[in-house]
Amino acid sequence: MRATASDHARPQPALSQGERVLDARASIEVSELVFRYTPSGSDVLRGISLRIEAGEFVALIGQNGAGKTTLAKHFNGLLKPTSGSIRVMGRDTRTVPVADMARTVGYVYQNPDHQIFAQRVRAEAAFGPRNLGLSPAEVERRVDAALELVGLQEHADDFAFSLGRGQRQKLAVASVLAMEPRVLVIDEPTTGLDQAGARGILELLSRWNAEGRTIIAITHDMALVAERIPRTIVVSDGLILADGATRVVLSDAPLLRQAFLRPPQVTRVAQQLSEFGIRPDTLTVTELLAQIREQEAIA
Amino acid sequence: MDDEAVAIRVRDLRFRYPGAARDALAGVNLDVHRGEFLGITGPSGAGKSTLCLCLKGLIPAGEFSGSVSVAGQTVAPGSAYVDGSALVFQNPETQIIGLTVAEDLAFGPENLRREPAWIRGAIPTHLDLVRLGGYQDTDTYRLSGGQKQRLAIADALILEPAILILDEPTSELDPIGKDEVFDVLERLRHERQITVIMVEHAAEQLAEMADRIIVMQDGMVVDQGPPDQLYLNPVLFHRPDAERAPQISEVLFQLVQAGLLPAEEFTAREQQGIERLRAFLAERQRSPLVLWERGRG
Q: Which residue of B has its CA nearest to A68?
């Protein structure tokens, strides 16, 4: 995926003295990352290396407890490596304060209620940008834009906890969007949402990605990954089991089984129809129907 | 349906939260058979969670009217919790109170004054049921989201309820974890003749397991039926903003709509769906003419 011109035009975060940008295009570089929560504990991450370029849209998938969230919390410096290193926009997360890192990497938690604390919707969305030291006018502009983007503008003056679960999820996203981070990490963006809510959040993420921002989504929703996210990383037992094009990764049933995952239903169905010329890497309902219709045309 | 066979009977149930502009439940009528697996689906704000609370006798503050009978017990504002039913909440954090997994599991049966020996024996059995075997002494705060959710289900199962009500219990689980919860429910239903009511967005698993699915919107039951009939509804499903339907049902639905497959051959279940598609494609490869004739007819 590409970074747009406007993305490059946006001012880079300030670098502290002595820091060197290795490659400004790489959003995140993880090298030999090992992490354990306590010195005597076992390794939760056991040697992870990966590179995510600016403007990519990446899915992190894996079993509950595989280490996805632990890995993602390294991306904004909420956790620091036990050994190995993480560079975000070229800066080592061990040398940058978390508050500073928050300007670059936004993190939306799995449960919006872990994040929301302000009484009113507008105040919640304004908290982040206000902390960035922006002018009141700029804060207001960003809050309006973020609430508009998630479709909560008419609820701006409502009580945050009077919103439904889907709307609270959108508010959690808006609060992070208002900080206009270049990298957005979102943990289970569609959990607890109905189909319309999930679709809304995903359209939003796709739009944001099209503007050149890097998006990393942790999710169990294989159908959603198949339809929307070009690159998939499989985390299993603290290691990366696979990292590649979503079409390749999500159609590899034996590999996914190792990670206690499985392809989307339509892919499983397609793989049972291979003798009829249906491609085993079919990822969506639309793709399967197109192949069936193609056969109809031939017949 | 005679009264013996009825686990739950709901008549014209209306409920409105204080200060709300509209009813959360706007006249719900529902009979659930003993041993039935009933799925509930519908968009956020449809009233699904409120209905679950009422079925456990946990009626929130607000305006309540209509009648609800659960396991022979009448539910009304101020009435006791329904003993024969157990409720697993959407968010396991609201339910887990023990410091360790074993303490958490013991809390319910201790309150019911079960024998300590019985409780000690039941803990490992119920942990095995939800794939948490060996976790007795683990601190509950150390569990992952999925593990907490499975513990919350074990907390309910150890009470040996006749009716188990689950409010989106698998929303934070990985696909295999979702399957395991459904497997546990299926097994329980056969071994204990338990009645299961499950609010769930995982349409593919629900279609495999549920005897019947009801769709709620705006506080009402707008449609219901066995999965193989329900997912043929073109208004409620198969549109961009509609509730999620199993992917296999989306494929077959489109073929039915195009006149390529008779409606009787529609299904929402994976294995049956694969068989129908195999037959469909085989027939097409054998004789294009038959298909063409059928398409015309």
A: B144
Rounded Cα distance, A28 and A183, in Å: 9
Q: Is A36 on the interface with B (CB under 8 A)?
A: no
- Mark whether A200 and A273 lie in a shared domain: no
For A102-118, what is each residue's pLDDT tens digit? 888 998 877 777 777 77
In contact, A19 and A85? CB cutoff 8 Å: no
User: What's the pLDDT tens digit per position in B268-283?
Assistant: 999 999 999 999 999 8
Dist CA B237 CA A21 (whole Å):
50
**Residues B145/A110, Cβ–Cβ less than 8 Å:** yes
Residues in chain A closer than 8 A to B177 (CB atoms): 63-64, 260
Of A4-18, A46-60, A194-208, B117-131, which range is least confident?
Answer: A4-18
| B-chain residues near A62 (CB < 8 A) | 174
Give the amino acid at B216: M
Question: With an 8 Å Cβ cutoff, are A269 and B274 in contact?
Answer: yes
Contact B247 A191 (CB under 8 A): no
- Whether A162 and A274 map to the same domain: the answer is no
Rounded to whole angstroms, the Cα distance separating B25 from B11 reads 12
Give yes or no: residues B93 and B162 share one domain: yes
For residue A143, pLDDT over 60 is answered with yes
Whole-angstrom distance, CA of residue B94 vs CA of residue B89: 7
Interface pTM (ipTM) of the complex? Answer: 0.84
Q: Judge whether B235 lies within some domain.
A: no
Query: Both B164 and B260 in a single domain?
Result: no
C-alpha distance from A280 to closest chain B C-alpha (Å):
14
| Total domains, chain B | 2
| CA nearest to B286 within chain A | A299
How far apart (Å, rounded) are the C-alpha atoms in residues B128 and A164? 35
Residue of A nearest to B89 (CA): A192
Domain holding B92, by residue range, is 3-228
